[in-house]
Structures are given as structure tokens and as C-alpha cells.
Design brief:
The complex is a heterotrimer of chains A (324), B (304) and C (329).
Chain A: H1 2-29, H2 33-37, H3 44-53, H4 60-73, H5 86-121, H6 126-140, H7 143-157, E1 170-172, E2 175-177, H8 182-214, H9 218-225, H10 230-268, H11 273-283, H12 286-314, H13 316-319
Antiparallel strand pairs in A: 1-2
Chain B: H1 18-27, H2 30-52, E1 74-75, E2 81-82, H3 93-129, H4 131-145, H5 149-160, H6 164-191, H7 194-201, H8 206-242, H9 254-265, H10 271-298
Antiparallel strand pairs in B: 1-2
Chain C: E1 8-19, E2 22-34, E3 39-43, H1 50-58, E4 65-74, E5 77-78, H2 84-90, E6 95-98, H3 102-105, H4 112-121, H5 129-142, H6 148-151, H7 161-173, E7 179-183, H8 191-208, E8 211-216, H9 219-225, E9 228-233, E10 236-242, H10 243-248, H11 253-261, H12 300-304, E11 310-311, E12 317-318
Parallel strand pairs in C: 3-8, 3-9, 6-7, 7-8
Antiparallel strand pairs in C: 1-2, 1-4, 4-5, 9-10, 10-12, 11-12
Helix pairs in contact in C: 4-5, 5-7, 7-8
Classes of the chains: A mainly alpha (324), B mainly alpha (304), C alpha/beta (329).
Chain lengths: 324, 304, 329
């Protein structure tokens, strides 16, 4: 088991390394790094200083070394627009994004799994067909457009929810989050629902496909043959088997939730990392772009690693080697 | 008498041949047929937009700022009816949507085709040659696929800047991996079948074997992926344009139209943003429905 | 002539599948009895309907299949007419089933203990977990699994094929059923293990006086374990009777063909016999006897009417109008 974890960790490190190379390459090979990392407003003295600090006058390999060292130190440049260290800005915004992403994930799972299992158990039923049609719709609609629709209906027309910004936060258990206040929740709901919709369709389809496959398996029939209640057959036998692929996919897709939050945050003016990066790309605030890339890569690689380990816990066949 | 499993008795139906069977299977879903019809209409509009559009919204001479923000169905002083209203600069929404469809569909399809060509080649090569080459290629594919497409596109555009060509490049780079993986998977299945061994024994050249033998059998899954990916590409391009990072104003896609119209929503002029959105939605949904049905037809596990 | 009623009486059972390609008459007029403590072998090739018969008794026929006719009288009640609740309390309790592939029969993500305890608790909700575990442990010991206390906590994939099947047997016997239906229980096992499992089952059923319906295509197994045999062909029982006489003097042409095609000591050096022709498609059954296209004794009557079971004495029934005659060649 530990060997497995070690091996996967090593692989993750390699991926991190490769990605850092790519980011470095992207920044330095494409276009002038001086333009990339130094504000166009800077005067010659400032330019010279930054060049020396970042080692831009050194050979490429040394530059890369500096890059890595700086990355470790958390030094990834200063924002042109805000003047603050890029990394600090991003980390400041991270809780908002995480809150949005996690709440969306919760919504998607809590609603998606029951709906998907139902659709899988009664594939020909009217409700099932509706669910599946709805899921295709949810899958097809671009996130930003759903966001616009939501704002139009629920904010502008009905006035149920505010259309922009994050609500008040409160701190419980050492966590500061807007889910603890009513105002916070009302601000959180629309963007979270928007983000969740895409995932919801995914989860429904996964749960349905898994259910359709598992329900035909011999062990389900055997459980019934033992006289086990149908509700338990579904709750225990079916659910545990479909959870494995679902958890894996959800875990990996959490990364895409964070990615799509860039869109949702822009539409709803939610103050997270996503909005920051979009604005930065627009404003050519390159240090933030670089810092964001590195953070995202780190998140993704960690996520992949965690999911891999989680998967091996969930499936006893992977965790415990069989006898003979 | 030595059959092992007492499986349910198989129904024996006589399979029809090739194209006819394909059409029969496809038509089983009325929804898919409807979607196909809808998509064909959209395709028609996109192809012939300059000719069937009521106005040319990008001909600056014909656009009058006095006509701006007219609600759907209104008439202007010259007697033109704006069925879907006008936008902030006075352009007819219906025409803008027609031209927008043209761009959205064009960019989406083009990038899809290029990505398919590149991805399929790489995937087939990986499967056929195997060994280290395959492992390396597939690792790259896996890693790329584990990153969400929007992120990749953002990164690429952030580095290279905006523009039509750069958007297309971004879309291609985002999609090729899907095609590569699908191509390799089906090529692997084919490769292990005997007829490839036979061809190899006949000392046919590698290229010939891949092109004439393996590839035709991989076509079906590629088409499925292609359909669904095209829808995805269109959606992605729309998102990028909406964010202001994709196509420029001179070649507005539906995404850009939606983005431009976003601000007007708060003042109640919803049509500037919503109608292009509806057009986008119809396009994507119809392609997805067709793709779904194609996938169900070609899926061996759902075969009766 | 004993006056004790059989515990299971299948009367003209018909189970049909309503598929898109047509109606598949998997079981079309099957009748036989099982007495208490008796071992009945249900023999037939793939597609003969023997497994579906077993599933019909359990009420486990999957859609698009349905029991469309006949009665399944179990201890006086008709299973075919029971409600889902009644069926559920019957299964795993009065009638148990053992499946063919032990690999897929046990849920891979649940511990063996969980799967055994739930079988007990499904029929005795008041029992405590520790008591249920104790019963499960004893059952495992009974089927010859060593160190049952620890092995219970394991997952199915940690057992070998033969052990898994023993676990299935233990589960089947947990609630002391009156009848066990075993659907090809040894087909997927190694030959050496097969012998052990067969022996185990035989011993257990003798000790507990449990009736056993052994469904298989393997004549050798049936010959060793069964008291009576029912031979199925294309959805019907074509011959049934006591094991010894049926095997040594088969009366139905199909049964004769079966016996003839088994390689055996007596015929060393002689070419193996085959039954000519192919099994007809279940979608396209001929009128009259289903064996007509392969029978050496076929006559006009065979083509027009489905033969009814004829009582030829000594508790033997044969569905053949030409019973007793010898074939031409």
C-alpha cells in the first residue's frame, strides 16, 4: 500500500516538474520574457533590476533554476496592475473559489446520484426520460449561457437572488465561509447552481450507466435470491458498486469545476481566482497568469494523486491483493 | 452437447446491409431524427448566411445607430421589420445570428477536423508501432486529458494572444488528445485481430496496412467522438469569445454576440443576449443528440 | 406408494420472453415433482430452458420474461401467483439458490460476513448481529472452510473459486431451506474441485434432508448424485424417471442420443455418436414435436401434434408417440 502511494507521489512530482518546464518554456520561449514579466510602464532602472533579480541575463538553464527556486519560495513575480506579489493575490482569492466549487460539487452529487439511479432502474419510465433529456440539455448548454439565463430569470425578473458578488461570511470551526450566513447563501446559490448544472448532468449519466450495468450482474440476482429486501439491494449492493467509478470521476472532475469557475465567477462577479485570471489575461497581467498556472497545476496534480489513493481504498480488490 | 452456459436463448434476426441498416438503427430514435433535421437547417443557414440573411450587419453603411435596441418585432422608419430586435449599434439580431452561426460552426468544425486528422494519425501510429513510442504518446495524452479543456484554451490564448488563428490553434490543441485516445483504442482492438496479421504476412507496407485495413474499422467510434467533440468545440469557442478572449469583433461568433449583449440584460433588453444564446443552444443540443444516438448505435455492449 | 405430497410440484409451467424480435418460449409446458429430501437432476443443453425453470421457481425471471402459464405448487401454495413480498420471504428461506459462477455471485465490494449476515437478517429481523455472525461462522465450518472466524471478514476475491462456491452453498443453507436449486454449481470449477463440491453438497443434503434440484448439462455429475432425472429439450421435459433406469435404458430419442454421445469405457475404439441436425430456434419452433428434424423415428404424427408425456410405468414419463420402438438404423 505504501509502495503504491510512494510510486504515485513520484509520478506526480514528475508531472509537476514537466509542467513547470512547460510553463517556463511558454513564458520564456514565446515572446520576450522581459515583456512577460515586467510591466510596460517600468523605466530602464526597474527593468535592469528585475532582469537581475529574475536572472534573465543568465543562460536558460540557470534561469530555469532561478525559476524553480523562486517558485518554491513563493516568488512568482509581482502583478503589474496591483503591484502585489502574484501568489499572494491568488491565495487571497482561493477560499472564495473553493467555496463555490465545493458547494457546487455537493449540489451535483446530492441531486445527481438519486436521479441517475432512478433513471437507471426504470429506463423506460416517463420521469427517467425527462431526467435524461434534462441531462443532455444541462450537458450541452455552455456554462456562461446558463449563468446568463439564471440571472435573467431569478435576478432581473423574479428578484429572488442577487445577481453579483459574494455575500457576508461568518466563521465556524475555524473556517470562514459565506455558507454560514443567509445573505451569503443567497449570493452563493445561483453561481453554485450554475456551476453544478454541468456536473449534475455528468453525475446523472454516470449513475444511470452504472446502475444499468450493475443491476444486471449476478450478485444482484443472488442478493435477491437470498431474500434480501429490494431497498437494501439498491442501497447497499448497487450503490457501493457504482460509487467507485462515480467517486473517481467526480474527484477528477473537481478540477474542471475549478476551471469552469473562471466562467461562472466572471458572469456573477464572484471574487475568486477565476475572475482574477480572466481579468489578468485581458489586462496582460502576466505574473498573475504564470502564478495561476503553477497553482492550478499543483492543485491538479495533487487532486489526481488523492483520487488515485482514494480509489484504491474504495475498491477492496485493488487494496487487498487476492489469495491465489 | 457441451455448451457451457445456459444463457437466455438468442433471438435470430436477419441483419440488413451496411448503409440501410445504419439508417434503420439511427431512425429508431425520433428525437435523433428531429435533431438531425434541425442541425441540417442550421448548417444550411450557416453556409448560405450571406445570401439568405435579411441584412448584412457588418456593412457599416446599412447600419443606423438610430435603430439601436429595438425590441423584437419592431419596425423602423424605412419599414424594415426586425424580427429579433436590434442590438446596441442598431444591427439586426436575426442577421447577426445568421452570420454568427456561420462563424461559430465554421471555427468549431474546422478545428474539429484538423484535430481529428492530427489526433487520429498520432493515435493510430501509437497503436500500430507500440512499445516505448506508444507509452510516451499515451502518457502525454492522458496528462492532457486530465486538464479541463477550458483551462488549456485559456493558457494557450494567454500566451499567444487573441485572434481567429490563435483561437483555432487553441481549439485544435485542446481536442487532438480525445481523437488520439479514441483512435488508438479502436486501432488496438483491430490490431489484435487476425486479418492484420495476415496482411503483415503478405508483407504489405505499414502505411498501407494502417490506411486500408485498420483505419476503416476505427471510423465508427471516430465519427461518434467527432460529433460530440464538435459540439464541445463550439461551446468552448463561445465561452472564450464571451470572455472576450477568443474571436475578434470583426468576425463575431455567437459567443461574442452573447457577451456583447450581456450588459444590456440588466436594463431589460434581453434579446440582444438571449437570442444568440438560443441559437447556440439549439446548435449544440442538436449535434449532441445526433452524436448520442450514433454512440448508442455503435456501442457493442448495447447491441441486442 | 407413499402418500406424502411432493414439496414442489411444477405443473405445465410456461415462461415466455417478449423480445423485440418476437416471443421466445423458453419454458413451454414443463411439469415435474420434487419430493422431500430428494435429489432431482434437470438436464439439458444450452437453451433448453433448464435455468429459466429454476429462476421461475424462485420468481427471479428478468424482464422481458414472464411466467405466462402453469402453476408452481410449493408446500401447497402457488409460487407463480405470489406477491413480491411473499416471494421475498420465501427466497433464501424456504427455497435457496446456488448460481453457476461463484466469481460474480458474491458482491466484490462487500465482505463475506456482510453478505451472510444479511441473508439471515432478511428473514429474522429480531436476531442480534453477534448471533447472526455465529450462525454464519458455523455454516462456513460446515462446508469445510477452515478458520471461519477470520475468513468471514475477507472479501470474495480473496477466496479461490472452489471456496467461493462453498461460501455460496453455506449461504444457501443458512436458513435451513426445504429446497435448494443449484444452477450449474460446478461448471465453472476445476475438475478436482468439482468432485469435492459435489460430494460436499450431497453429504449436506443427506444430513439436513434438504431436497435438491441440480440443473446441469453434465450427465456424469447427474448420474452420480441424483435420485431422479428430468431431461429437457427446447423448453419441455422430454423424459423423466429414476436415474438408474433412465440412464441405462433411455426411451426418448433425444435421451438416447445424449447417452450415446458420452464417451465411456464401454465403447472404446468406436466412433462417438452425434445427434444429427441442430436445435431449432426458439423464435421459430416447428409445430409438433421439437425434436422432429433430428429424430430417426420421426413419423407423421410427430409433425402435427406436440407429444404429451406418456406414463410407461416405473414412474417414468416420456414425451414421444413412438416410445418403445427402436430406430431404423
Amino acid at each position: 500500500m505504501t509502495a503504491f502511494i510512494l510510486r504515485r507521489s513520484l509520478q506526480s512530482l514528475i508531472v509537476l516538474f514537466v509542467m513547470s518546464l512547460l510553463v517556463f518554456g511558454g513564458v520564456n520561449m514565446v515572446g520576450d520574457p522581459v515583456d512577460m514579466l515586467i510591466s510596460p510602464e517600468a523605466d530602464q532602472m526597474e527593468i535592469d533590476r528585475v532582469i537581475r533579480d529574475l536572472g534573465l541575463d543568465r543562460p536558460v538553464t540557470e534561469q530555469y533554476w532561478y525559476f524553480l527556486v523562486n517558485a518554491f519560495k513563493g516568488e512568482l513575480g509581482r502583478s503589474f496592475i496591483f503591484g502585489e506579489p502574484a501568489l499572494k493575490l491568488i491565495i487571497q482569492r482561493m477560499p472564495a473559489t473553493m467555496e463555490l466549487a465545493l458547494f457546487s460539487l455537493l449540489l451535483a452529487v446530492v441531486f445527481g446520484i438519486p436521479l441517475g439511479v432512478y433513471a437507471g432502474l426504470k429506463p423506460e419510465g416517463k420521469l427517467s426520460r425527462t431526467i435524461m433529456a434534462g441531462s443532455i440539455l444541462g450537458f450541452s448548454m455552455p456554462t456562461f449561457w446558463v449563468g446568463i439565463l439564471l440571472i435573467m430569470f431569478f435576478s432581473v425578473n423574479l428578484g429572488w437572488f442577487p445577481s453579483t458578488g459574494r455575500g457576508e461570511t461568518a466563521t465556524y470551526f475555524g473556517m470562514t465561509s459565506s455558507i454560514f450566513t443567509a445573505d451569503g447563501l443567497s449570493h452563493l446559490f445561483l453561481p453554485a447552481f450554475n456551476l453544478a448544472l454541468f456536473k449534475l448532468s455528468s453525475v446523472i449519466r454516470l449513475a444511470r450507466a452504472g446502475t444499468r450495468e450493475v443491476i444486471l450482474q449476478d450478485y444482484i440476482k443472488f442478493a435477491r435470491a437470498k431474500g434480501v429486501q429490494e431497498s437494501r439491494v439498491i442501497r447497499v449492493h448497487l450503490l457501493k458498486n457504482i460509487m467507485i467509478p462515480i467517486v473517481t470521476v467526480i474527484g477528477l472532475e473537481f478540477g474542471s469545476l475549478i476551471a469552469f469557475s473562471t466562467v461562472t465567477e466572471t458572469v456573477f462577479a464572484w471574487p475568486g481566482m477565476g475572475k482574477l485570471i480572466i481579468d489578468s489575461i485581458y489586462n496582460l497581467d502576466r505574473p498573475i497568469i504564470v502564478a495561476y498556472l503553477m497553482i492550478i497545476v499543483l492543485i491538479f496534480v495533487t487532486l489526481n494523486l488523492v483520487v488515485d489513493i482514494l480509489y484504491s481504498f474504495l475498491d477492496p480488490r485493488v487494496r487487498i491483493k487476492g489469495a491465489k | 452437447m457441451s455448451n457451457v452456459t445456459d444463457a437466455k436463448p438468442q433471438a435470430t434476426a436477419v441483419p440488413a446491409s451496411g448503409l440501410k441498416k445504419f439508417w434503420a438503427d439511427f431512425s429508431e430514435s425520433r428525437l435523433a431524427l428531429f435533431a438531425l433535421a434541425v442541425f441540417s437547417t442550421i448548417l444550411f443557414i450557416a453556409l448560405f448566411a450571406p445570401w439568405i440573411s435579411p441584412t448584412n450587419p457588418y456593412d457599416l453603411g446599412s447600419v443606423d445607430i438610430m435603430n439601436s435596441r429595438l425590441p423584437p418585432g419592431s419596425e423602423d422608419f424605412a419599414g424594415n421589420v426586425y424580427w429579433l430586435g436590434t442590438d446596441g449599434a442598431g444591427r439586426d439580431m436575426l442577421s447577426s445570428i445568421f452570420y454568427g452561426l456561420r462563424v461559430s460552426l465554421g471555427v468549431g468544425a474546422f478545428s474539429g477536423i484538423v484535430a481529428m486528422a492530427i489526433g487520429a494519425t498520432i493515435g493510430l501510429a501509437a497503436a500500430y508501432f507500440g512499445g516505448r513510442l506508444e507509452t510516451i504518446i499515451m502518457r502525454i495524452v492522458d496528462i492532457q486529458l486530465s486538464f479541463p479543456s477550458i483551462l488549456m484554451a485559456l493558457i494557450i490564448l494567454a500566451i499567444f494572444g487573441k485572434g481567429v488563428d490563435k483561437t483555432i490553434i487553441a481549439l485544435v490543441l485542446v481536442q487532438w488528445a480525445y481523437y488520439a485516445r479514441t483512435a488508438r483504442a479502436s486501432a488496438l482492438v483491430e490490431k489484435n485481430k487476425e486479418y492484420v496479421e495476415a496482411a503483415q504476412c503478405l508483407a504489405l507496407s505499414d502505411r498501407r496496412i494502417i490506411l486500408s485495413h485498420i483505419m476503416p474499422n476505427c471510423l465508427a467510434p471516430m465519427i461518434v467522438v467527432g460529433t460530440l467533440q464538435t459540439a464541445h468545440a463550439i461551446s468552448l469557442e463561445a465561452t472564450l469569445s464571451f470572455l472576450g478572449l477568443g474571436l475578434p469583433i470583426t468576425e463575431p461568433s455567437l459567443g461574442l454576440l452573447i457577451g456583447n449583449g450581456f450588459e444590456y440584460m440588466y436594463t431589460g433588453d434581453f434579446w440582444i443576449s438571449i437570442f444568440p444564446g438560443v441559437a447556440l443552444l439549439i446548435t449544440i443540443v442538436s449535434i449532441n443528440l445526433v452524436g448520442d444516438q450514433l454512440r448508442d448505435i455503435f456501442n457493442p455492449r448495447l447491441q441486442k | 406408494m407413499d402418500a406424502v405430497k411432493p414439496i414442489l410440484q411444477i405443473e405445465n409451467l410456461q415462461t415466455h420472453f417478449f423480445t423485440k424480435a418476437g416471443v421466445v418460449k423458453a419454458v413451454d409446458g414443463v411439469s415435474f415433482d420434487i419430493n422431500a429430501g430428494e435429489v432431482v437432476g434437470l438436464v439439458g443443453e444450452s437453451g433448453s430452458g433448464k435455468s429459466i425453470t429454476g429462476f421461475s421457481v424462485m420468481g427471479l425471471v428478468d424482464a422481458p420474461g414472464k411466467i405466462v402459464g402453469g402453476r408452481i405448487m410449493f408446500q401447497g401454495e402457488d409460487i407463480a401467483a405470489m406477491s413480491p413480498q411473499q416471494l421475498q420471504s420465501l427466497r433464501g428461506n424456504r427455497i435457496s439458490m446456488i448460481f453457476q459462477d461463484p466469481m460474480m455471485t458474491l458482491n466484490p465490494v462487500l465482505r463475506v460476513e456482510t453478505q451472510m449476515v444479511e441473508a439471515i437478517k432478511a428473514h429474522d429481523s429480531m436476531i442480534s448481529k453477534s448471533e447472526a455472525r455465529a450462525r454464519a461462522r458455523d455454516a462456513l465450518g460446515l462446508v469445510g472452510i477452515s478458520a471461519p472466524e477470520e475468513r468471514m471478514r475477507a472479501y470474495p476475491h480473496q477466496f479461490s473459486g472452489g471456496m467461493r462456491q462453498r461460501v455460496s452453498i453455506a449461504i444457501a443453507m443458512l436458513n435451513r431451506p426445504d429446497l435448494i436449486i443449484a444452477d450449474e454449481p460446478t461448471t465453472a470449477l476445476d475438475v478436482t474441485i468439482q468432485g469435492q463440491v459435489i460430494h460436499e453438497m450431497q453429504r449436506l443434503c443427506e444430513v439436513t434432508k434438504t431436497a435438491l434440484l441440480w440443473i446441469t448439462h453434465d450427465l456424469a455429475v447427474v448420474a452420480g448424485i441424483a435420485d431422479r432425472i428430468c431431461v429437457m429439450y427446447v423448453g419441455r421435459v422430454v423424459e423423466q424417471g429414476p436415474i438408474a433406469s433412465t440412464i441405462s435404458q433411455p426411451l426418448h430419442p433425444y435421451t438416447r442420443g445424449l447417452m450415446g454421445s458420452v464417451p465411456s469405457q464401454n465403447r472404446r475404439g468406436q466412433p462417438l455418436q452425434q445427434i444429427d441436425g441442430m436445435v431449432p430456434s426458439l423464435l421459430n419452433l416447428p409445430s409438433g414435436c421439437a425434436f422432429q428434424n433430428r429424430c430417426a423415428m420421426v413419423s407423421d404424427k410427430c409433425l402435427s401434434e406436440i407429444p404429451e408425456p406418456i406414463d410407461v410405468g416405473e414412474q417414468r414419463l416420456v414425451r414421444c408417440v413412438n416410445v418403445g420402438q427402436e430406430p431404423a438404423s
